[in-house]
Amino acid sequence: MQQHSLVYKSSSIHYYIFGSGAKTLFCFHGYGEDGSSFAFLEKKLGTIYTLYAIDFPIHGKTQWNEKTPFSPHNLVEVLACIHPVKNDKFSLLAYSMGGRAALHLLQQIPRKIERVGLVAPDGLHQNVWYWITTQTAFGNKAFAYTMEKPGWFFWLVNNSGKLKILNKSIIKFVHHHLDDKEQRLLLYKRWTFMRRLKPDLLLIRKTCAEKNIQLNFLFGEYDRIILSKRAGVFKNAKNINIKIINAGHQLLKEKYATEIVALLNQ
Fold first, then answer.
1. 2-123+199-262, what's its fold?
2. pLDDT, tens digit, 9 for 90 and up, residues 181-238
3. What is the DSSP string of the chain?
4. Where in the chain is the domain with CATH 3.40.50.1820?
């Protein structure tokens, strides 16, 4: 494993390198994680791929100092600086939040992508609250206020649980990320700074067929955060496979390495 930092404009992008294979694989981590999450795959993929796993802004050791949100264009430039593959194609492996970034790249620069493996990916469903809090000025201000004074929100979540409107997994997820004030402020910054990554699923389905790009999904049957049914638009589509295994949301683990590696071999 190697660690490096890239100077990008006024920011510093931290990333990890695993393996030394001839093919290039960019890896995108989930919310609250960093590029080291992919370390366990080095022994499985490192002879075939060189894995480049970046820390997203407001995550890991990356320091995002720009005044504007992290955009798809920024991501393309960062990847090109980390490893200028020129005319060679690369593949993508992404988990949860990172799936949103991978999907957007797939629609933006399909000519450079060979295959994509998505593990319980975000970006398949336009959550109304996420849209309001990140895409509207009023919603973003209300979001900032709630992260500062979350009492009313916790009351709503807890009572929704009692009424069985929200399941226990969602409530546990909310408290895990929002009970601590520092974590709430990080959530606000992370959601706000990643808001420009908005994949167009129908366009991606069409692109995979036309450009002959292999897109493989892996979901947990008992995942209550990212539901497999959200990938319904991709069912029976050319070059796209969907696999569901006996697991929850936390799929980026060594015990699921075989299933994850298969995403890049299908």
1. Rossmann fold (3.40.50)
2. 777 777 777 777 777 788 999 999 999 999 999 999 999 999 988 999 999 999 999 9
3. -EEEEEEETTEEEEEEEE---SEEEEEE--TT--GGGGGGGHHHHTTTEEEEEEPPTTSTT-B---SS---HHHHHHHHHHH---TT--EEEEEETHHHHHHHHHHHH-GGGEEEEEEES-S-SS--HHHHHHHHSHHHHHHHHHHHHS-HHHHHHHHHHHHTTSS-HHHHHHHHHHHSSHHHHHHHHHHHHHTTT----HHHHHHHHHHHT-EEEEEEETT-SSS-GGGGGGGTT-TTEEEEEES--S---SGGGHHHHHHTTT-
4. 2-123+199-262
